[in-house]
Amino acid sequence: MYTRILNLSDLVEKKSFFLFGPRSTGKSTLLKNEFGEISTINLLSNDTYLTLLARPSLLREMVSAIKAKTSHRRLPIIIDEVQKIPSLLDEVHYLIEEKKYKFILTGSSARKLKRSGVNLLAGRAWEAQLFPLVSKEIPTFNLKKYLLVGGLPQVYPSKYPREELDAYVNTYLKEEIKEESLVQNLSHFSRFLKFACLANAEQVNFAKMSSDAELPASTIKGYFEILRDTFLGFILEPWKESKKRKAIATAKFYFFDIGVANYLRGVESITEGSSDFGKSLEHFIAMEIRAYLSYHRIKKELCFWRTLQGDEVDFIIGNEVAIEVKGYRKVNERDLKGLLKLKEEKILKRFYFVSLDNNERITDNQIHILDVYRFLDLLWSGKLIS
Fold first, then answer.
1. Quick one: 109 and 256 in the same domain?
2. pLDDT digits (tens, 9 = 90+) for 285-337
3. What does residue 369 show for φ and ψ, rounded to 5 degrees?
4. Count of domains for the chain
5. Is residue 229 part of a domain?
6. Which of 138, 159, 180, 228 has the fewest beta carbons under 10 Å from its own?
7. How many whole angstroms separate alpha carbon 376 and alpha carbon 386?
8. Segments forming the whole domain that contains residue 325
């Protein structure tokens, strides 16, 4: 068991909310640990699913029965995998408005909710996400291990992480996509995945991927949307506020978990100093920042910067913090080129270079050079961004 940072009790005290995230990130386990199972309506149960699919209005009776059992406890009503019956949200809307009940609505896919025109509760519920384990949640965190196998709760501590990743990819990334009827041709989607993993942490070139995968560009774009809607990947938009140097407009794509991305690419080991190591380290920092912003409800956009001239900075948070990430042991002046170019824009406030160089220092140009572990300390203590 891991102690997760996301505070569900605090959130639901304020408002009902959707809890989104890929399968197997620990949503059900976290809910069970915080609230027990007595107030959970699980749509993965076939009997419950078929009953409510036939008569969504029966939700009112189920909720009344739960409340009768828990009248002495301030428990929220939990509906697990609510996307399986989107029409239930009309009933949830009624119960929030008329009965003032609090709900936690979990989902591993927002596609049906977004595309079926269902009632998304019109602002009566917030949104939260649960991600794979982050460094702060792992008592004996091992960076090298994480950069290879990622942070899925059943994968990271396993003696057989590749077996777990194999099961995850074949059970969730393929079978669930098929079960949810999200694609018509599963073999095309499987072929797409082999090329999508090569685009991980890179700008997405739809035309090139279309040619390589021998699939129409429109199909490629649609498959990327599926990965986003099922929370299996996310897009990092380019930061376009720079005036002195024109920024590119093409976004970058990241899988939701480093281990899954490495498994799809066939990476079985990572050597410090290799391109795989550098890419995984960048991916890791992206995941840590993204989780921190989400868990602490900080509404600042995470972007990257790349110019037409080739200047680049990996991450920008709001208009405040710039972060460059490299897997180097020694950082020298030429490595700071991107940050220095960005600093000339005179928009951002703080500049960090994150690497394996443990000689922490601040340059004459006010670039803060620090190692990964020191960066993580600053991030999760709230000293980097708040």
1. no
2. 999 999 999 999 999 999 999 999 999 999 999 999 999 999 999 999 999 99
3. -100, 125
4. 2
5. yes
6. 159
7. 14
8. 135-380
